[in-house]
């Protein structure tokens, strides 16, 4: 059966970690636009070279590029296997509308949007720690602050967009990985 979930939240709220776990439990494929972009960067593709400039500055990659990437993934899966957790997508209203349309084409309604919330200062500290552990070039303090700003300005309007559709679950993202995961499970079973 089709299932489509969205993970939303500011950078560093723990989306990736929780997404991996939820995918395992619900047999979903994680579609992280950030991971796809990082793979392009690593392979040195034209898309990757262009995207890296934006990523290093903490800016968003253009909607056309991102929507095209998501469309390609869905096309490669075929129409009978839409069990996807979207992680870090959509990030703009244009992306959200494109996703609505894509899911419509695949007859896969959106089941739920999980919003992981966390205090900004706590997140900045988390991200700085991750920078050291993973060596991500977009995890220096200036970039992190800019990513927060971009989230506030361009992505947070989606909270209202999904709230209005009645599919939004607000989850407190602070706490142990297990605690946060339990909250997500509880929200999805309601
Ligand atoms: P993430 O790993 O999801 O935090 O993404 C890392 C970076 O990739 C972001 O700061 C953006 O530059 C870019 N990116 C990832 N997903 C998107 C998206 N849906 N729209 C625009 N840019 C994105």
Summary tags:
190 residues; alpha/beta; five-stranded parallel sheet; 5 strands; 60% helix; globular; binds adenosine monophosphate
Description:
The protein is an alpha/beta fold. Helix content is 60%, strand content 14%. The protein has helices at 15-26, 33-43, 46-57, 63-77, 93-105, 120-134, 141-155, 157-164, 177-189; strands spanning 3-8, 29-32, 83-87, 112-117, 168-172. Strands 2-3-1-4-5 form a five-stranded parallel sheet, sandwiched between helices. The two termini are 19 Å apart. The mean pLDDT is 92. Bound molecules: adenosine monophosphate. Adenosine monophosphate (AMP) is lined by residues 11, 33-34, 37, 54-55, 58-61, 66, 88-89, 91, 95, 138, 147.
- SSE series: EHEHHHEHEHHHEH
Strand percentage lies at 5-15%
Helix content: 55-70%
> What is the CA-CA span between the terminal residues?
19 Å
| Total DSSP helices | 9
**Average pLDDT:** 92
Extract low-pLDDT stretches. none
**Secondary-structure-derived class:** alpha/beta
Q: If strands are numbered along the chain, what order do they take across the biggest sheet?
A: 2-3-1-4-5
Small ligands present = adenosine monophosphate
Task: Write down how many β-strands occur, each being a DSSP E stretch of 2 or more residues.
Answer: 5
Query: Biggest β-sheet: count, sense, barrel?
Result: 5 strands, parallel
General shape: globular
Rg calc:
16 Å
Could you provide a short overview of the structure?
The protein is an alpha/beta fold. It is built from 9 helices and 5 strands; from the N terminus they run βαβαααβαβαααβα.
């Amino acid at each position: 059966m089709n299932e489509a979930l969205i993970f939303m939240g500011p950078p560093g709220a723990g989306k990736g970690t929780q997404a991996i776990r939820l995918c395992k439990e619900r047999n979903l494929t994680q579609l992280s636009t950030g991971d796809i972009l990082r793979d392009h960067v690593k392979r040195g593709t034209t898309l990757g070279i262009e995207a890296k400039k934006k990523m290093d500055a903490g800016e968003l990659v253009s909607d056309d590029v991102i929507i095209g990437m998501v469309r390609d993934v869905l096309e490669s899966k075929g129409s009978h296997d839409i069990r996807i957790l979207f992680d870090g997508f959509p990030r703009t209203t244009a992306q959200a509308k494109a996703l609505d349309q894509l899911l419509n084409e695949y007859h896969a309604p959106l089941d739920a949007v999980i919003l992981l919330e966390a205090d900004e200062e706590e997140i900045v500290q988390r991200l700085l720690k991750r920078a050291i552990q993973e060596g991500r070039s977009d995890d220096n303090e200036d970039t992190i602050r800019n990513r927060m700003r971009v989230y506030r300005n361009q992505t947070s309007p989606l909270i209202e967009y999904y709230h209005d559709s009645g599919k939004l679950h607000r989850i407190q993202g602070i706490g142990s990985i297990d605690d946060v995961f339990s909250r997500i499970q509880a929200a999805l079973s309601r």
